[in-house]
Design goal:
6 helices; globular; single chain
Length: 114
Amino acid sequence: MNDRPPGCNIMICDAMLHRYVPSMRAEMVYRLVHHQGVPQSEVARRLGISRAAISQYISKKRGGSEIDLSGELDQMINRWALAVMGEDTAITLCDVCRCTKDGKCPYSSDQNLE
């Protein structure tokens, strides 16, 4: 049985995972802490990582490479932040991959954290 999205390729997913996800996670953490006022310890608990890792994301010591945040990718990060806080449905890596690869983001709503 094959439940992969059409065009799914492990090499593309691997490249996307290394190039985009760390920077997107850093941005998502920044938004939760600085835009929503969520304590770093709470973000760490919800993500299952250390408070020190959250601090490193915020200071760009982790996931600090620059990526182009198109409108769709920006909205994807907002959806991810909402999902982490339990306020929205979950997103998948396939969703992120489609958004970065094709610009076909499954979630392009106007939801904003600011």
